What we know:
With 103 residues, the chain is mainly alpha-helical. Helix content is 61%, strand content 0%.
Amino acid sequence: MKRNKIVAPESIGKHIEEEYGKDKEFRKAYEEEVLKLKIAYKITQLRKARHLTQSELAEKVGTTQQNISRLEDLENTQITLHTLTKLAAALKARLSIDLIPQY
C-alpha cells in the first residue's frame, strides 16, 4: 500500500518547488492558478485605485455587482477576453496579453 506524503504548513513552499520542478502537469496547473490570482488581484487593485465600488464598476461594464465580485474572487475560473476588454475600458486601462515562447 502506497502512503501519501504529508505536507506540513512550514514545508509547503519547498513541496511546491519540488513538484514544480519534476511534474509537468503540476507546473501547468500551478501557472494557471497563479495567472487567475494575478488577474483577480489586478482587477481589484485597479478598481480601488480608481475609487470605484464594485457596484459603480458594474454599472460602467454593464453587469451586476455580484459579477464584479466573482471576477475579483481569487477562486474565479471563468473570465473571458470580452469581459477583460470591457473591464479595461471601464477602468481606463490598457489590456495587454502576451504569448511568451517556452524553451
